Amino acid sequence: MLSNEKYKGDALLQKTYTVDFLTKKRAVNNGEVPMYYVEESHPAIIDKEMHTAVQLEMERRRAFAEKYNISKLDYATVDNPFAGRVICGHCGSAFGRKVWNSTDERLRRVVWRCNKKYEVKGKKSCENKHIDDKVLYHVFVNTFNAMVENKEYFMEKWKEGLKSENVLVRYRARQFIEILKDAEIVEEFDVDMYFRWVEKMTVFDGKKIIVSLLDGTEIEVVVE
Ligand SMILES: [Zn+2]
Questions:
Q1: Separation of 164 CA from ligand 1 center, angstroms?
Q2: What is the whole-number distance in angstroms between the Cα of residue 31 and the centre of ligand 1?
Q3: Which of 39, 72, 161, 182 lies at a 20 to 30 A Cα distance from 118?
Q4: Distances (CA, A) of 21 to 16, 29, 50, 116, 164
């Protein structure tokens, strides 16, 4: 029962995400269950904390879906990581995914567009521009690298988080510190990393994107 709860907690707090769930989980847990737990907490307290963190995380997701009028709570997947997480900087609606097909596979494009744009048929109700999904992948890579390059600043910020009263805030801070402390500049998008860090990306006219991390940190990325 307890281990089951912990398993559920790990999954919900996205320590693991990929198809290779069980294998990955073991590997991740070895490295990632913070020393804090090992040294200072009785196992029963770990489960109680994890349980509370999971409740807070579920509440965060519920409030997020309600705020942005997203019908499904978790519909981002490894293949479609931006679903329900791209938000319009003009009107606050969620962006939806559109595939622009072509007989030439090379010209096929995936774009994200404000759901309010053509809410009334033939009539634009939001003027925000669409954004290519390649840009969104890039934006996360840039965001991650910005954190690596400003590691000291971010580490200080999350060290404050470790002192929080809120168990979910402490959990995120620990996880962010664990990942960032040895992280180096990356070139490729990593979907697991993306799920661990990003709550949403708010898009302004395809030029400016504000990336909100799961702890509420906002990082602005300008697309050139
Ligand atoms: Zn909009």
A1: 35
A2: 41
A3: 72
A4: 6, 12, 19, 36, 30
